[in-house]
Amino acid sequence: MDNSDVLQRFAELPFPIEVELGNLTLTIGEIFDLSEGMILKTDHSDGAPFTLRAGGAELASVEVVVVRDSLSVRVRNMLQKANPGVGTNGTN
Q: I want to staple 73 with a disulfide (CB 3.0 to 4.6 A). Which of 7, 45, 52, 62 is the partner?
């Protein structure tokens, strides 16, 4: 079975995707002091795109949109495009 066969066989398996909202650093004391309603400021600039990740790898830049009362994301720019016919060693 080559890489293409493996990818086709598993192409329909669900894979968790994450949208990175931003980063921040808190002390242990600040973590213990967290409470409902607190606002935590991240390092994310207003209007800047967010990062879409799969398995920790960056896939795309996205923007948050509202679709029928649900937060969603729109892909703005693909950061890396997987080539399903090529293996990690560059062979088919």
A: 62
- Under 8 Å between Cβ of 3 and 87: yes
Which of residues 26 and 5 earns the better pLDDT score? Answer: 26
pTM score:
0.64
DSSP for 13-82, please give it.
Answer: S---EEEE-------HHHHHT--TT-----SPPTTPPEEEEETTEEEEEEEEEEETTEEEEEEEEES---
How far CA 14 is from CA of 24, 28, 77, in Å, comes to 29, 35, 22
- The mean per-residue pLDDT over the stretch 59-72 comes to 93
**Cα separation, 77 vs 50, whole angstroms:** 10
Phi, psi at residue 12, to the nearest 5°?
A: -95, 0
**Per-residue pLDDT for 82 more than 70?**
no
C-alpha of 91 from chain center: 27
